[in-house]
Amino acid sequence: MEFWLDEIKDYADGDPEILLLGNKSDLYNLKEIDLEEVKVYLLNFFRGRNFFQKASHMYDLTFFEVSAKENKNILEAFLCFSEKLCEKK
């Protein structure tokens, strides 16, 4: 994941919107990481790299656990992301 986040930092202008999707959330018995662990990891990652122009944006990350198989949170994730992009204009 660090590779892709570094790519965003290197090539995105301003404060990019980031949507993190945890795929295959229907495989409950194989889940290896808690969503809160992901949030803590990302906050530490961004804080250590001065990723955002404004520190407050660091806490405005969007996370969704999705499942294409169960059609869980797919539409919600993209609607949320679209709304965030429209708010920036």
Largest sheet, in brief, is: 2 strands, parallel
| Content of β-strand | 5-15%
| Succession of helices and strands | HEHEH
CATH superfamily (homologous) name: P-loop containing nucleotide triphosphate hydrolases
- Give the low-pLDDT segments: none
Task: Write the CATH fold name.
Answer: Rossmann fold
Radius of gyration using CA atoms only: 14 Å
Written overview of the protein:
- By secondary structure, the protein is mainly alpha-helical.
- 45% of the residues lie in helices and 9% in strands.
- The chain has helices at residues 2-11, 35-49, 74-88; strands at 19-22, 62-65.
- The mean pLDDT is 79.
Task: List key phrases describing it.
89 residues, mainly alpha, Rossmann fold
Can you describe this structure in just a few lines?
The chain contains three helices and two strands; from the N terminus they run H-E-H-E-H. By secondary structure, it is mainly α.
